[in-house]
Write a structure and sequence with these properties.
Largest interface: A-B, 39 and 38 residues
CATH superfamily of the largest domain in chain A: Butyryl-CoA Dehydrogenase, subunit A, domain 3
Shape of chain B: globular
Oligomer: heterodimer
Distance between the termini of chain A: 36 Å
Strand order of the largest sheet of chain B: 2-3-7-5-4
CATH architecture of the largest domain in chain A: Up-down Bundle
Structural class of chain A: alpha+beta
CATH architecture of the largest domain in chain B: Up-down Bundle
Helix content of chain A: 25-40%
Number of strands of chain A: 10
Largest sheet of chain B: 5 strands, mixed, barrel
CATH superfamily of the largest domain in chain B: Butyryl-CoA Dehydrogenase, subunit A, domain 3
Chain lengths: ~400, ~375
């Protein structure tokens, strides 16, 4: 099993780890910061070089076992490094799902020979693994997926469609959830596989988003053959594999400003702007927004620090970590909207070269996805209410019903 | 265990966790004493104070807990004051422990004997630090060493022996300690939304004071009081969340618990979010104050977040309870009242928000 048994790690050790990582980053990271609007292929190439350099220093695949090319470190080290890495605007976006979710799942359920061969390439950024979960009719309700896998020779034939797949167009490998038995209730009839993304019968079409990047795709499967040796987990045991994936990233790092511009930029903007001759910084609405954003930032900082401390002591992060994504998206949306108010009509100009971490118009344009991807605000509220507060589940008429009768 | 015995144990060192013991005893005591009937009785009469409960927590060492040992306190630090305040908030009991700690701290260098009486719980303290307008002006005028003017809406002023207040002389602000037994002090008890706060209007006519500090001391007293109060607010908010969730699980309508409806469950998830965010801010502020760093921003954020969380929780707990929530018998109105009292007593959010934003803007200008 992948999950290392975490032993008690003294705080001194992790502080030393952080110091070393910070020093290493300060030497190497600045050369990899993407400047201006790089074409996506160039950004990806830069990102691959960054992964390779990190891998050589033990900073890629930090929590993955050494035999697979990982650093054999702890989850805490992974989070600590990611925290330090956030200080730079690095082209790591292509590898997030691959190295934090897909590959770690494969490291648990894949065959040993395949793990030894494939994981090192992923860690070095040579190969990317995408995750094929969502479908047009199955997003938040993932277990409602319909893409079928039917037995064929010594493997399976896949037919159907996946959607919202990040970086499918650049991925060598895909990790996919399929329906293998529609006579069973929806959670019971699923099976997972991994497959070559250039397999015959796969068609990848980009989906244009309201933001400017080229991240997501829909992926069509027409009689795509997958050998049974590439099955992950048991036949009809796919839901367990999916849950494992969702649990691996126990503490996804988030940025309290939702990866938008920092609060300081907003305050500076408010100081330089006036509304009918009065400084905007003196407007109650503006001051209220500044106070709220600072509260969001300060509170989340403590929640992060407490989670790190819990992990350092060998425990689990508290459930309060689940509020961070909810807060960050809403906070960024609020602040970006008000910032464009302050900028006025000039904020209507969309500079394609601008970055959402420094440009409020880009930030505003791109922020809705933050409240959707990786669990919508609404599903997160359900999760908090049910898992933390112990409130009853929603009424679910499909519960226990064979999938083909829903 | 009495306070002397506690102090004795505190001297023996850290192998015995006094703070944990205080909290454990306190929880048991309040679980038993803060009955709905007693809490309701206190609300009936303006200026109510539960002196029997006060005597019991004095015996347990609550006012002494955070006060320095050289003043006869237990020297357990700010954290224990915050935790005890949280406990008081949870049970909606009103006990002047925050005022005791702040007043004893302010008296440490100028009237040690009085400070010791505060630590011993025999002098009841009250605070009037920023309840006047939203500027740094003060209602009390200091002239030489006497004050005149009116202090309003301060918790425990109906029963306090000593008031720590901000007074103005010319353009200068001073922190003054006023002995309320002086003949120039008139106390008028007036009905309030939360009679259990033991508040009164105090009129001062040339009452002698002890000047205990200026701007820096005022700031320190305000921040300490605001932080501990944030924990009191969080204690109340957390209790509201529990009350509302319990009710939402049990109360059925349209064939299912109302907690299964997203209109209710999402609201409760928002309670939780507001509380955890405020808790995060409160711990950040506690850490900054304990480290002796400039903590104005963090405390202001903690104060605003805790105020918002408690108000939201108290208001919406009534809503979850439905018509039951607006009855005298149900517990929700205690929190509704308390949330507003605590929101105003140390200066409303408007004041703290303004302070926070100025502080952030200054930081940015100097960096």
């Amino acid at each position: 099993m992948l999950n290392p048994v975490e032993t008690l790690q003294p705080m001194d050790d992790i502080d030393a780890y952080r110091t070393t990582a910070r020093a290493w980053l300060s030497v190497h990271a600045p050369k990899f910061v993407a400047r201006g609007a790089l074409p996506v292929e160039e950004k990806l190439a830069l990102g691959r070089r960054w992964q390779a350099l990190k891998a050589s220093a033990g900073y890629s695949g930090i929590a993955l076992p050494k035999p697979y090319g990982g650093a054999g470190g702890t989850e805490l080290q992974r989070v600590t490094f990611a925290d330090e890495e956030l200080a730079y605007d690095l082209p790591t976006v292509f590898f997030g799902v691959s190295l934090n979710m897909t590959v770690p799942t494969f490291a648990i359920y894949g065959r040993e020979s395949a793990r030894l061969e494939l994981i090192p390439k992923a860690i070095r950024g040579e190969e990317i693994w995408c995750q094929l979960f969502s479908e047009p009719g199955a997003g938040s309700d993932l277990a409602g997926l319909r893409l079928t896998a039917k037995r064929h020779a010594d493997g399976w034939l896949l037919n159907g469609q996946k959607v919202w797949t990040s970086w499918a167009q650049f991925s060598e490998w895909g990790y996919i959830a399929t329906r293998t038995d529609p006579d069973l209730p929806k959670h019971k009839g699923l099976t997972c596989f991994y497959l070559k993304m250039n397999s015959p019968g796969i068609e990848i079409r980009p989906i244009k988003r309201i933001g400017c990047d080229q991240e997501i795709n829909e992926v069509f499967f027409n009689d795509v053959f997958v050998p049974d040796t590439q099955r992950l987990g048991e036949v009809n045991g796919g839901f367990q594999v999916i849950i494992t994936t969702l649990m691996i990233e126990r503490f996804a790092l988030s940025d309290a400003f939702g990866f938008g511009p920092p609060l300081g930029d907003f305050i500076t903007l408010a100081q330089r702007t006036s509304v009918r001759g009065r400084p905007a910084i003196e407007e109650g609405v503006v001051r209220s927004a500044i106070a709220s954003s600072y509260i969001d930032w300060l509170g989340q900082g403590t929640i992060n620090a407490r989670a790190m401390a819990a992990m350092t002591a060998g425990g689990e992060p508290g459930p309060e970590g689940s509020i961070r994504k909810l807060l960050a998206g809403q906070s960024r949306q609020r602040l970006s909207t008000l910032a464009t108010d302050l900028i006025g009509v000039d904020a209507l100009e969309l500079d394609p070269a601008a970055n959402e971490r420094s440009d409020f118009t880009q930030s505003w344009m791109d922020v809705p996805q933050l409240r959707i991807a990786g669990g919508t605000d609404d599903i997160l509220r359900n999760t908090i209410a049910e898992k933390i507060l112990g409130l009853p589940q929603d009424y679910r008429p499909d519960k226990g019903v064979p999938f083909n009768q829903i | 265990m009495n306070q002397q015995a506690m102090a004795g144990i505190a001297d023996q060192g850290a192998e015995f966790d006094i703070s944990a013991l205080l909290l454990e005893q306190g929880k048991k005591l309040l679980e038993d004493r803060a009955t709905p009937q007693r809490l309701r009785n206190l609300l009936e009469k303006p200026g109510s104070f539960n002196s029997a409960l006060w005597a019991e927590v004095v015996e347990l060492g609550w006012p002494a807990a955070a006060i320095a040992e050289n003043l006869g306190g237990l020297g357990l630090g700010l954290r224990v004051l915050c935790d005890l305040a949280g406990l008081a908030g949870r049970y909606t009991v009103s006990l002047p422990i925050i005022a005791s700690a702040v007043v004893a701290g302010a008296l440490a260098n100028c009237d040690k004997a009085r400070g010791e009486l505060v630590a011993a719980g025999s002098t009841i303290a009250a605070l009037d630090l920023c309840n006047v307008g939203y500027a740094n002006d003060a209602a009390l005028q200091l002239s030489g060493d006497v004050v005149s003017g009116t202090s309003r809406g301060c918790a425990f002023s109906a029963v306090a022996d000593m008031l720590l207040a901000v007074a103005q002389a010319g353009g200068e602000l001073h922190l003054v300690a006023i002995d309320l037994s002086h003949s120039g002090v008139e106390r008028h008890i007036i009905p309030s939304i939360d009679n259990a706060r033991a508040s009164a209007r105090l009129r001062f006519d040339a009452v002698p004071v002890l000047v205990v500090g200026g701007g820096a001391e005022i700031e320190e007293a305000r921040l300490t009081a605001a932080l501990a109060t944030a924990f009191e607010q969080l204690g109340g908010a957390q209790r509201c969340l529990e009350l509302a969730c319990d009710f939402a699980r049990e109360r059925k309508a349209f064939g299912q618990p109302i907690g299964a409806f997203q209109a209710v469950k999402h609201k409760l998830a928002d309670f939780y979010t507001a509380i955890e965010l405020a808790r995060g801010c409160a711990f950040a502020a506690l850490e900054a104050l304990q480290a002796g760093n400039a903590a104005t921003k963090q405390v202001a954020a903690a104060r605003i977040a805790a105020t918002e969380a408690y108000e939201f929780a108290a208001r919406e707990t009534i809503q979850v309870f439905g018509a039951l929530g607006i009855t005298w018998e149900a517990p929700a109105h205690h929190h509704y009242r308390r949330s507003r009292s605590l929101a105003l007593e140390l200066g409303a959010s408007l004041y703290w928000r303004d302070l926070l934003v100025d502080s952030l803007a200054v930081d940015l200008g100097s960096s």
